[in-house]
Amino acid sequence: MIFQSLLMFAAIYCVIIKGSIDMGGISQIWSIASESGRIQFFNFDMDPTVRHSVCSQIVGGMFIYLSLYAVNQAQVQRLLTVRSLYEAKMSLWLSLPILMILSFSTAFAGLTIFAKYHNCDPIMQGRICAPDQLLPLFVADTLSEYPGVTGLFIAGLLSGSLSTVSSSINSLAAVTWEDYITPMLKQPVSILVSTLSNKSLAFTYGLTCIGLAFVASKFKGVLQASLTVFGVVGGPLLGIFTVGMMFPFVSEVAVVPSFLIALVFGFWIGFGGPKPPVHRLSGHISECPQLSEERFPCSPNYGNSSIGLAPDEYFYFYRISYMYYTLIGFTITLLLSLILSIWFPQKNQVDKKLLSPMTHKIMGYEDADEFISIPKNEEEQKIIAEMKFKQDLRKRNIEVLEESSTNHYTTAL
Fold first, then answer.
1. Distance separating alpha carbons of residues 63 and 61, to the nearest angstrom
2. CB of 84 within 8 A of CB of 355?
3. How far apart are CA 281 and CA 47, in angstroms?
4. What is the pLDDT of residue 369?
5. Model-level pTM?
6. What CA–CA distance (Å, rounded) separates 94 from 98?
7. Which of 151, 140, 116 is nearest to 24 (CA)?
8. Is the separation of the CB atoms in 260 and 337 below 8 Å?
9. Are 321 and 60 spatial neighbours (Cβ–Cβ below 8 Å)?
10. 267-285: per-residue pLDDT in tens?
11. Alpha helices in 341-377 (DSSP H)
């Protein structure tokens, strides 16, 4: 993983260094981007239909990263590989500066590429068909003369994808085996059978990912498509975990319908349409060399396309920024779960270990059963009474030990 990260950074900084040399320095790149309107730090518009703003990046981005780092199966599986909760927390804190450096580096690499082509837009010219092809084009134009650098760039791209895909495939295989296949088995299987089954599942999911790569090539923007999927699925998932950790009186009967409703709503606004076309910042081809368009694989694209509607005429939910999809799914799941719990409250004992420590501090209780409706079954009442008795006994023993230690300390003084 560390070697893959180094390859990723090496590929990005090859682009930045080479571009800075060709364009006359970092200040020149920044000046070109600023004059062309590519630097937008202070857009505080709170309208949720604005695609990118400070508000959408902070609020929407916070919920996106919460879903990715708090409840995502691949991330949780990584955290479970460390020895203690403290080390898991430290690994998250240590990943923060690395992620920030990577984000700023990739953003500046984008500015470097823009500075290179600001007077000869390759999309308008027809050299490439989509913005996702700008980075490979830059490498081919500027770094192909240096032996091995193009290979380093390809290795960096593969490292970035493999570090994510490998953990996701393993997580899918593990979840499929543990949550779906194992409960259906009538008797336990050997370690060998379990290992071979998980490897077969991982191989199958790997082939599926390869097939989906061909589908992803049809998307206009892979980054937005991936964040849309993360938002649509991650929001309701974050809502389920939040409800489970923070509200012990909410039952499964209330949560599952809420999750499904939020998921359907998210897919509707995320992939429904028609959506307003993404506004493309202006570019020009005033300094492009005079070459025949027949040499280019794509038809020239000279501006923003539309179907004759003004942006405000589209359906409102289709205009909402994809950065808010996670927040919307989370909110729907949370609110519907709390409302449905009025009619379908939790009737079973909730394990205290499953609740967030913050829950006890905010609500001011120590045992989850204080917020659970009284069971109708006498056997359940008996079990809960026994558990309460054991808890009270444990508390009294702790108080006796504390009092005894205090007396011994006083006597010693």
1. 5
2. no
3. 20
4. 47
5. 0.75
6. 7
7. 116
8. no
9. yes
10. 898 888 787 877 776 667 7
11. 357-363
